[in-house]
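4.2 Preliminary Data

To establish feasibility before requesting continued support, the project team ran the inverse folding procedure on a target of 137 residues. The structure was first converted into the token representation described in Section 3, and no sequence information of any kind was made available to the design step. The complete token record follows.
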């Protein structure tokens, strides 16, 4: 199991983007491409940045259920996580995940339109070598 977890972690760390899904106000899934998480704790917690004013933030405040997907087309691998999202506005976490390049999106790391999404995984499904494996987290 440790070998598979390391393979999944490596897949995640090689990516530039991931895909975050939420349930919209009409009960339908909606997916957005996101910059890869700025921070992660094992395969359980992922920290992404976004605009506080975005539709997805408003939807997560209403319904925290979410999906997070990473794929590597070169190796035809993917991992789909299901879990919940918490919208964080705490300055300490905003400072921790801030990158200099964020200045193209936000005035600075105290910009009220800059927030952090904490995705907490409950389940994962990993696809590799034409096989899928399920994991409870």
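Position-by-position output of the design step:
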């Amino acid at each position: 199991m440790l070998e598979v977890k390391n393979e999944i972690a490596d897949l995640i760390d090689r990516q530039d983007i991931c895909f975050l899904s939420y349930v919209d106000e009409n009960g339908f899934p909606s997916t957005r491409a996101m910059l890869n998480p700025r921070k992660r704790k094992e395969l359980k917690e992922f920290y992404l940045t976004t605009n506080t004013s975005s539709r997805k933030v408003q939807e997560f405040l209403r319904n925290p259920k979410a999906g997070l997907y990473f794929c590597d087309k070169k190796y035809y691998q993917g991992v789909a996580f299901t879990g919940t999202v918490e919208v964080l506005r705490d300055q300490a976490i905003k400072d921790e995940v801030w990158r200099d390049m964020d200045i193209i999106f936000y005035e600075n790391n105290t910009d009220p339109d800059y927030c952090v999404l904490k995705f907490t995984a409950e389940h994962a499904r990993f696809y590799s070598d034409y096989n899928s494996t399920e994991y409870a987290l």
